[in-house]
Amino acid sequence: MTTAQARQDLAVQPTPLALLLLGREADTRSERGVECPGDLPSPSDPDLVARARAAKEKLGEKVFVLGHHYQRDEVIQFADVTGDSFKLARDAAARPGAEYIVFCGVHFMAESADILTGDEQKVVLPDLAAGCSMADMATAEQVAECWDVLTDAGIAERVVPVSYMNSSADIKAFTGKHGGTICTSSNAERALNWAFEQGEQVLFLPDQHLGRNTAVRDLGLSLEDCVLYNPHKPNGGLTAEELRNAKMILWRGHCSVHGRFSLDSVNDVRKRVPGVNVLVHPECKHEVVSAADYVGSTEYIIKMLEEAPSGSKWAIGTELNLVQRLANRFAADDKEIVFLDKTVCFCSTMNRIDLPHLVWTLESLAEGKEINRIQVEKETADFAQLALERMLALP
Q1: What residues contact residue 243 under an 8 Å CB cut-off, 6+ apart?
Q2: CA 84 to CA 16: how far, in whole Å?
Q3: What is the DSSP letter of 18?
Q4: Which H or E run includes 7?
Q5: Mind listing the pLDDT tens digit for each residue in 329-385?
């Protein structure tokens, strides 16, 4: 099946910005990274698959390739394991014999893998420009300024930071240093329960939607218990009284993919596909999550479709590469799977890692050239690991 046919089957229409490439000539400390050095093979090279196989075979046990669920099929076929960001980082840590960890994902994921793997292991990102717009929405300087605002409001000592896995190593380190924990979309409820046992308020970074949805849907808080801190406004755009009264201080960040889905998307798909089950990721807006039938992480979405009965219909609100792959996988089981929105919604930075970048990476490593290594500075890594360990210890 061609990509065009798959898009048509998923009821989506391509847009000019579908594969917008972000992050050219960006700050090296940014999640977006910088231009990838080296001469890439042509994407039209008919030998790319054979070249990737040959290089991977030459490297043997020295290389371990991780593929995030949102990667292209042309890349996923070479992954030794697939999964979400935290699962992949733990998988890498469980392979101490692999000298090179090639992370087909985005920058913050490779950072987490570097933090959790041994010092002798080298984590490689095939394209340094593969970043995360959400992670970019919270810089270390902005978060430090936010903490000063909370201190001036007299509440910093009772605020516990909880940072989403989709954040930079700097933000994870800030979280660890200030007594907080990391969370994933699977364990956000447990993380927030733990945080409220440690303090009275939570600073949730950097995805406002996951924080709001978890607080309201799972913990029973009200929307009025949540305030939105905007790092681009003085004092976050909030008064000291608003900060003191809030239970959840949400950072003004979001996923550029999941943030596209709207209540209109849900209403439209219910009209187009009678009897459809709407299944969305908790990074979606609160009104979308409230209107959906099921809400859960990427792994939850996959599990739901695996267990779904034959003949069932599903509209999925998450990244299109994954939805497309699931639609193809379950077509033989007579499960109808469509994309929640009518327009293409790839993760543009995740799509930067394509077959030419992967071939270039594997061939370079096979020739003994170490390229695109991701290394987190030791103090940052230590505090970030502390926050990650608190997450692993969650009840």
Answers
A1: 149, 150, 153, 155, 227, 236, 249
A2: 28
A3: T
A4: helix 3-9
A5: 999 999 999 999 877 667 777 778 999 999 999 999 999 999 999 999 999 999 999
